[in-house]
UniProtKB/TrEMBL annotation:
InterPro entries: ArsR-like_HTH (IPR011991), HTH_ArsR_DNA-bd_dom (IPR001845), HTH_MetalResp_TranReg (IPR051081), WH-like_DNA-bd_sf (IPR036388), WH_DNA-bd_sf (IPR036390). This is DNA-binding transcriptional ArsR family regulator. The keyword Heme does not apply. Gene3D superfamilies: Winged helix-like DNA-binding domain superfamily/Winged helix DNA-binding domain.
Length: 102
């Protein structure tokens, strides 16, 4: 979870995720939308991929990036449940139910 939040701490990386919200884009397509160097964009993409938020696929000479939706949703859900006062008692009850069934 730590890697996800570190990845989301950057405005550039959040913008990249927004660009990938509805479309798969090549690294070049993504880089063309920013006023930073291509190596810098590549570094941001590497961080997002290491956090499990995007996946890459090499096709010919291009690398295509897309969102890993389940990873982002699950990580944020886990975080919300940890800090939400309503969720903590429900999670405790869920754990008790599991223990009773085991």
């Amino acid at each position: 979870m730590q890697r996800v939040f570190e990845a989301l701490s950057s405005t550039v990386r959040r913008k990249i995720l927004a660009y990938l919200a509805h479309a798969e884009l090549t690294a070049g397509d993504i880089a063309s939308r920013f006023a930073i160097s291509k190596p810098a964009v590549s570094q941001h993409l590497s961080i997002l991929e290491a956090a499990g938020l995007v996946r890459s696929e090499k096709r010919g000479q291009f690398v295509h990036y897309s969102l890993v939706r389940d990873s982002l949703v699950n990580t944020l859900n886990d975080f919300v449940q940890e800090v939400c006062p309503v969720s903590k008692p429900l999670k405790a009850e869920s754990a008790r139910l599991k223990d009773e069934r085991d």
